[in-house]
Design brief:
The chain is an all-alpha fold. 65% of the residues lie in helices and 0% in strands. Helix 2 runs antiparallel to helix 4 and helix 3 crosses helix 4.
Length: 86
């Protein structure tokens, strides 16, 4: 029983410290947003990845970086409509 409590407290600590780790009320859309933004941030932060994308798309590194930053705003499109409560 003590191990279970310890694991849950560690998980709660991680969830409060890092936004992308999720929580029980997180929707699939929010989870995907976090994954896409983390991926784009990683691509921008690693110089060799930027070079790879620039060569693959035949664009400058600055243009690729600009496009990735723009995609971070709404990487999965607009949020889905929430069901109306009566």
């Amino acid at each position: 029983m003590a191990d279970r409590y310890n694991i849950h407290s560690q998980l709660e600590h991680l969830q409060s410290k890092y936004v992308g780790t999720g929580h029980a009320d997180m929707t699939k859309y929010e989870w995907l947003i976090n994954q896409h933004r983390d991926s784009y941030a990683s691509y921008i932060g690693h110089h060799h990845m930027m070079e790879f994308f620039a060569i693959a798309e035949n664009e400058s590194k600055a243009r690729i970086k600009f496009n990735f930053i723009q995609k971070m705003l709404q990487p999965c499109g607009p949020p889905p409509e929430k069901p109306k409560e009566d």
